[in-house]
Task: inverse folding
């Protein structure tokens, strides 16, 4: 068991000071999670309530970093994503640049199989640990499978391929598995059904459908904005823990200029790092990955061990090619990890463990 800054006796002696009480409670919670015990919803809310620039939060981030290193053998991963299409999407997630309602993109374009293969091979050459193919929710699923098979054929057998697509039945999920995907990214987003035109129940069912088909599911508490309460965040952390994902984590909302949600602003990188750290503490040890997006040193020192490089269309960007905008490259992601004292895994992802 690890000992933290303040002993119980010291804290009792200072009990008339509310800051001392908080520090004592933080200390107790860190000891509890140090034993591998899961924190309750109220305990998660207590940690989320702490000021991001407090001693308590720095202790939480340090402990999350320690646990992340313990469960991933000190090795961070860089995954890469590209979209096979760019199109206005009627699912109208208010935080997404593809949402029809946001009016950012009005024309539809799609990659040819050859273009998708070229992106995929470049990322493989760049040494990423997993490669994600994304499509908007209404992109024809059979076409997505066709392109995916072409991509799969062009890659080394050991390269981990992941799908980031809309809600699916077990039957469709099995087709993804057959096309050579090891897993998917799927999340119930914060205020799903309120800030999106999608159904929360269907999002959750898809997660279980993917798992039933033998696909590992990576997820995240996202996209966090200043309006989300600590109770909402705690509930989402607990939900992601409930299905033992390949990884969980936290990502802040990137404002799409001129949109309704952009008017609400953005949380700071430090606040995001706090949530990333608390998400780690809310996961069982069987979950070895803890992601954040966008990549940053504060996230990495708070226990994030997974970043994404991106090219092409990106739902957080207004540029058609995110590599000319917000997107990070595999190398820049690796250097952010190195600046934060993380080693980088070489070879296929260990977070997505299933063999294809
Ligand atoms: S997040 Fe996905 S489903 Fe929602 S609007 Fe964007 S592309 Fe469509």
Result:
């Amino acid at each position: 068991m690890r000992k933290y800054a303040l002993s119980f006796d010291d804290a009792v002696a200072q009990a008339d000071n509310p800051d001392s009480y908080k520090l004592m409670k933080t200390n107790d919670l860190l000891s509890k999670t140090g034993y591998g015990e899961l924190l309750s919803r109220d305990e998660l809310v207590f940690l989320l309530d702490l000021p991001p620039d407090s001693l308590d939060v720095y202790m939480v981030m340090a402990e999350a970093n320690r646990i992340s290193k313990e469960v991933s053998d000190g090795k961070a991963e860089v995954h890469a994503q590209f979209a096979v299409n760019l199109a206005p999407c009627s699912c109208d997630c208010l935080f997404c640049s593809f949402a029809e309602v946001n009016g950012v993109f009005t024309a539809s374009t799609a990659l040819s199989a050859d273009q998708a293969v070229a992106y995929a091979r470049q990322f493989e050459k760049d040494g990423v640990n997993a490669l994600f193919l994304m499509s908007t929710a209404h992109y024809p699923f059979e076409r997505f499978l066709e392109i995916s098979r072409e991509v799969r054929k062009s890659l080394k057998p050991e390269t981990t391929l992941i799908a980031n697509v809309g809600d699916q039945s077990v039957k469709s999920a099995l087709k993804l598995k057959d096309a050579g995907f090891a897993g998917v990214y799927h999340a119930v987003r914060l205020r799903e059904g309120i800030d999106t035109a999608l159904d929360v129940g269907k999002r959750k069912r898809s997660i279980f459908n993917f798992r039933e088909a033998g696909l590992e599911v990576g997820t995240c508490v996202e996209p966090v904005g200043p309006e989300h309460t600590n109770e909402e965040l705690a509930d989402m952390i607990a939900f992601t823990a409930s299905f033992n994902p390949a990884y969980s984590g936290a990502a802040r909302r990137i404002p799409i200029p001129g949109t309704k949600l952009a008017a609400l602003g953005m949380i700071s990188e430090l606040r995001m790092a706090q949530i990333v750290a608390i998400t780690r503490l809310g996961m069982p040890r069987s979950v070895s990955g803890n992601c954040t997006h966008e990549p940053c040193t504060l996230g990495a020192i708070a226990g994030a061990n997974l970043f994404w490089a991106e090219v092409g269309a990106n739902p957080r960007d207004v540029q058609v090619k995110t590599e000319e905008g917000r997107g990070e490259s595999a190398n820049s992601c690796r250097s952010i990890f190195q600046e934060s004292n993380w080693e980088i895994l070489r070879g296929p992802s260990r977070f997505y463990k299933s063999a294809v």
